[in-house]
Design brief:
The protein is α/β, with parallel strands linked by helices and 342 residues long. It is built from 12 helices and 12 strands. It is found in: Cell membrane.
């Protein structure tokens, strides 16, 4: 019995060792593949075909079995005729160099630091590489704003389309305030849902200071800088009135640049009236001239289906596990600490 027990223990140890070595080998292989893999990929989806498929499925759901058979026969006949017509039209278009224009659909759901701009720049570069006369871009935008430099870059990425004279429509179904509205102002046409939030043209900064708490606990903090305004306000040091004044001046400068940018993008807008930091609902924003139309992105896409191909362009970045955890954590605390947020 002793021999069997020892033998069983030996087998268990051996099996554990083999499994452990195999697991380590698999992890190393996966890490190597991830490091060698591209950072992301471009996903393209024909939205017009998706909408048509949904429409057909809805029609079929309301039919009896007999009606479905008749409908499918008629649908197949119609499809064959359309394919023949399309082939002829494609030949004609190729000979005459006529192409049905494309509506490129992009999405931007902005976070505090506007990190989504890294995907936006890829998507816009992809569109610019193939865009032809008559093509348009729709950006479905949702953002409450965030860091100045992040949203400044996002707005400039959209300007690349404007510089190439490609019509840009921005649709806001929920919210585009502060930095989000900075992006929206670049569009040649802005659509917003009736109860979406629009505006909030202003700048805010909020910094906690723990200096008195540290003093009570007899903890000293030393901060050494080279340059008078290298650090105006600090988290742990004692802030001076001069530092506060310089900090407020920096905020005002950012605010003026924000106003100037929106005013240049939308010259008909009374910028002094709407740049108080207030926001409006969609229907009110229309009266203020902040948007051009009340509507939703879905209606815009469906209306364009008759005249345009509808192509969704989405650059999907590969995220490591640690990056996903950091993103979840930053999302949880994004409303606690804010610095130079527009």
């Amino acid at each position: 019995m002793n021999i069997l027990s020892l033998y069983g223990l030996f087998l268990a140890k051996t099996l554990t060792l083999v499994v452990s070595i195999s697991a380590i080998a698999i992890i190393i292989t996966n890490l190597t593949k991830r490091n060698n893999a591209p950072t992301g990929k471009l996903k393209l989806t024909r939205l017009d075909e998706s909408y048509t498929e949904i429409q057909n499925n809805m029609c079929l759901a309301k039919m009896t079995s007999a009606q479905k058979k008749i409908w499918k026969k008629e649908f197949n006949k119609k499809k064959q005729k359309e394919e023949k017509i399309n082939k002829k039209q494609n030949r004609l278009q190729q000979n005459l160099k006529i192409h049905k224009p494309t509506l490129y659909v992009l999405d931007f759901q902005g976070s505090l630091d506007a990190r989504e701009v890294s995907s936006l720049r890829k998507e816009i570069s992809a569109v610019l590489s193939v865009a032809k006369k008559g093509d348009e871009v729709l950006l479905r935008l949702e953002s409450p704003g965030g860091l100045v430099h992040g949203y400044g870059l996002a707005a400039f990425q959209l300007q690349r389309l404007r510089n190439q004279s490609i019509p840009l429509t921005i649709s806001v179904d929920k919210i585009a305030t502060s930095g989000g509205y900075m992006m929206a102002s670049v569009a040649s046409h802005i659509i917003a849902a009736p109860f979406s939030l629009i505006g909030s043209i202003g700048v805010v900064a909020q910094i906690p200071n723990f200096n008195r708490l540290l003093k009570r606990n007899e903890i000293d903090i030393e901060l050494h800088t080279a340059g008078k305004y290298k650090r105006t306000l600090t988290l742990f040091g004692e802030n001076s009135e001069e530092g506060r004044e310089k900090f407020r001046d920096d905020l005002n400068q950012t605010y003026l640049l924000f106003k100037q940018f929106v005013g240049e993008m939308r010259p008909k807008l009374n910028i002094e009236t709407v740049s108080t930091g207030a926001h409006w609902y969609g229907s009110q924003a229309l009266e203020q001239g902040l948007i051009d139309e009340i509507g939703t992105s879905d209606d815009f896409i469906i209306n364009k289906m008759a005249t345009h191909q509808i192509l969704s362009v989405c650059y999907i970045r590969h995220q490591k596990v640690i990056d996903r955890l950091i993103n979840k954590f930053s999302y949880s605390v994004k409303n606690l600490l804010k610095f130079l947020i527009i």
